[in-house]
Amino acid sequence: MIDEKFIAKLINKINRILKKEKKFKKILNNYNNPQVFVCSPQLMRSLEKKFFKKNKEPDILSFNWPKNFPSIDKKPPLGEIYLNKKVLKDKQYLKRLLAHGFLHLLGFTHFKKSDSIKMEKKEVKVLSYLNKNGGNLRG
Known about the structure:
The protein is mainly alpha-helical. It has a single domain (4-135), classed as Collagenase (Catalytic Domain). It has helices spanning 4-18, 22-28, 41-52, 91-105, 113-130, and strands at 35-39, 60-64, 79-84. A 3-stranded mixed beta sheet has the order 1-3-2. Helix 4 packs across helix 5 (113-130). The two termini are 17 Å apart.
């Protein structure tokens, strides 16, 4: 079942996978995991309009945590990930989306074809680790 616990386990697992690379470990050690919010399709469309000036309903949106923005913890979250509640029906698609959103928070983009290729390769790598052992998400 896809619920908050399942999403939190996925985020933790993605964090651990990405920390295996030195350049990401340095960044991720300074932040807590991203906050994840499950939103209605209407809210997703509204956020897309407000921040990206597009009239469409995205499956996911990612926003970096603003520098010097207060946080209740010593370490701020890496950012925020907003998920369209429609995507909670498909675990495999959710894994891909969360990996994608996490990578955006680490600076990956897909504005240029070369950037898209780099991001897609990293997504595939993260997904291959996530799907090992049948996608087991223990601890």
